[in-house]
Write a structure and sequence with these properties.
Helix content: 25-40%
Largest sheet: 5 strands, parallel
Distance between the termini: 56 Å
Structural class: alpha/beta
Number of strands: 16
C-alpha cells in the first residue's frame, strides 16, 4: 500500500436512501473481509499508540487490527473482549470520531483508521462463527455482587467481575436486558438481535440476569446487603425525561422521546399490528432537540409514515450534539432541520390534541458554561409551525427511586448519584455507581469506561473485606 492509498479510508456501504426510509433494517452494512483487511493494512502499528489513549476502556487497538490484517478474526475478537464485553455494540454506536480515531496519527495526513468499523467486523465475524467463552481468571476470594440496571455500565461491571470468579446477579426493571441499547436506540442503527447476542454472552459467562425487578420497590439496596451481597453497583441510567415547561406541553400528541422510542423499540411499535403496541404518527412531526436521541426519533417517524419531519434545535448546525454521521443520515433521508429555532408554546384543537407550535428565532450570543455560544431569542421573530405530533428530546435525568430509598447515598440537585470518578465509590460503603446515573446522559462507551473502573474497585473492596487487610 503506497502513501496515497494509506491516506484514504475504506468506505462502508449503506442501504440506498430510497429503500431505507421505508424499513427498519440496519442502514450501515458493514465491511466485507476484503474491505476489513484493506482498512487494517492502513494501520501504522504505532509503538506508542495514541488511539489507545483515546479509548475509554483501553482496548489494545493496534493488536486487534493486526489480527484482522493477518486474517485471524477470532483472535481479533478475543483481543477486543479483553477490555470490551460489548464490541458489536460499540462498533456501531460509539463516537469513535471524537475518541480513538481523533487520536489516530494517520488523521494528520488523511483519514484516520476506521477503528469502529473494524471493531464491528471482528465482533460480527465471531458472532456468526460461534462465540467462545473464556475461562474465569479467579483472583483471590470470591464475593457476591448485585448489579442494578443492565445497560452498558452494568453489563461491563458484570462481565469483568464474573471473569474474576465473583457471583454476579443483575437486576433489570424492564422485561428485556440491555437498558438504553434495547429501549432507546432504533433497530436501523443497532439491531436488537445484536444487543441480545451481547447480553447472551454475559449470561454464558455466568451472570444471572433477572428482568422485571425494580430495585427500590422489590428490594432496597439495604435489603440486598441483608441478603448476603458484599457489594452493589448502581448502573440504572438516566431514563427520566426532561420537559420544556411551556404552555400546551400536556396536549395529546406531545411525547417525551423516552416514551416514543420505548414504544417503537422495546415494545416493537414499528412492527404493529404484529406486535400490539400502537403509536400515533401524524403527518407533520416536530422533534425538539439536536442530539442522537432527537435524530433517532425523527428518523423513526419518517419510517413510520410521517410526511414531514422537522428537527427543531435552538443552536446552529455546527453545535449539534448528535454524531455528524447521524445528522448526515437524517438529512439524506429528508429530515428538515429548523436550526436557531426554539418552541415557546404548543396549541391544540377542541379535542385536546396538538395542532400547532409557536416558535421564536434565535441568534448566538456569548459562550455559556458548556463552552458553546448561548442562543438568545430574537424579539418579534415568532412564527407558527403546522404540526400534529411533537417529540421532546432535550435530555434525560436519572429516576430518583434508588436515591430516595437508600439511606446514606448522596446525590446532586440534578438527581445524579455522587461517585468517585476513578473508583465509582459512593458515599455509602459497598455501593458503587457509574454511567448515566452518575454523569447524566452520555455515551455508551463512557458508561462502559466507568463500569470498568468500578469493577476493578469492587474487586479490590471484596478482597479487603474477605481477607481483613
Amino acid at each position: 500500500m503506497d502513501r496515497e492509498e494509506r491516506k484514504q479510508e475504506t468506505p462502508m456501504a449503506k442501504q440506498d436512501v430510497l429503500d431505507r426510509i421505508h424499513n427498519f433494517y440496519e442502514v450501515a452494512l458493514g465491511y466485507t473481509e476484503e474491505q476489513a483487511k484493506r482498512e487494517a493494512t492502513r494501520c501504522l502499528q504505532c509503538p506508542n499508540p495514541r488511539c489507545v489513549q483515546g479509548c475509554p476502556v483501553g482496548i489494545d487497538i493496534p493488536a486487534f487490527i493486526k489480527e484482522i490484517k493477518e486474517g485471524n478474526y477470532r483472535a481479533s475478537a478475543a483481543k477486543l473482549k479483553e477490555k470490551n464485553s460489548l464490541p458489536a455494540v460499540c462498533g456501531r454506536v460509539c463516537p469513535q470520531e471524537n475518541q480513538c480515531q481523533e487520536q489516530c496519527v494517520l488523521g494528520k495526513m488523511g483519514d484516520p483508521i476506521s477503528i469502529g468499523r473494524l471493531e464491528r467486523f471482528a465482533s460480527d465475524w465471531e458472532r456468526n462463527a460461534g462465540v467462545e467463552i473464556p475461562e474465569k481468571q479467579v483472583e483471590g476470594a470470591a464475593g457476591k455482587v448485585a448489579i442494578v440496571g443492565s445497560g452498558p455500565a452494568g453489563l461491563t461491571v458484570a462481565a469483568d467481575l464474573i471473569k474474576q470468579g465473583h457471583e454476579v446477579n443483575m437486576f433489570e426493571s424492564l422485561h428485556y436486558a440491555g437498558g438504553v441499547l434495547m429501549y432507546g436506540i432504533p433497530q436501523f442503527r443497532l439491531p436488537k438481535e445484536i444487543v441480545q447476542a451481547e447480553v447472551d454472552y454475559i449470561k454464558k459467562l455466568g451472570v444471572d440476569v433477572k428482568t422485571n425487578y425494580t430495585i427500590g420497590r422489590i428490594f432496597t439496596i439495604d435489603e440486598l446487603f441483608a441478603d448476603g451481597y458484599d457489594a452493589v453497583f448502581v448502573g440504572s441510567g438516566a431514563g427520566l425525561p426532561r420537559f420544556m415547561g411551556i404552555e400546551g406541553e400536556n396536549l395529546g400528541g406531545v411525547y417525551s422521546a423516552n416514551e416514543y422510542l420505548i414504544r417503537i423499540n422495546l415494545m416493537k411499535g414499528y412492527l404493529f399490528p404484529e406486535y400490539d403496541t400502537p403509536i400515533r404518527i401524524g403527518k407533520n412531526i416536530a422533534v425538539i432537540g439536536g442530539g442522537n436521541v432527537a435524530m433517532d426519533a425523527a428518523r423513526c417517524s419518517l419510517r413510520l409514515g410521517a410526511e414531514k419531519v422537522y428537527i427543531v434545535y435552538r443552536r446552529a448546525r455546527e453545535q449539534l450534539p448528535a454524531r455528524a454521521e447521524e445528522a448526515e443520515n437524517a438529512e439524506e433521508e429528508g429530515i428538515i432541520f429548523n436550526l436557531l429555532t426554539n418552541p415557546v408554546k404548543f396549541t391544540g384543537d377542541e379535542s385536546g390534541w396538538v395542532n400547532g407550535m409557536e416558535c421564536i428565532k434565535m441568534e448566538l450570543g456569548e459562550p455559556d458554561a458548556s463552552g458553546r455560544r448561548r442562543p438568545v431569542p430574537i424579539e418579534g421573530s415568532n412564527f407558527m409551525m403546522d404540526v400534529d405530533t411533537v417529540v421532546i428530546a432535550i435530555g434525560q435525568t436519572p429516576n430518583p427511586l434508588i436515591q430516595r430509598t437508600t439511606d446514606g447515598l448522596e446525590s446532586t440537585k440534578w438527581g445524579t448519584i455522587v461517585a468517585d470518578e476513578e473508583t465509582g465509590a459512593t458515599s455509602k460503603e459497598g455501593v458503587y455507581a457509574g454511567g448515566d446515573v452518575v454523569s447524566g446522559a452520555a455515551t455508551v462507551i463512557s458508561a462502559m469506561g466507568a463500569g470498568r473502573k468500578a469493577a476493578k474497585s469492587i474487586h479490590e473492596y471484596i478482597q479487603k473485606k474477605k481477607t481483613g487487610q
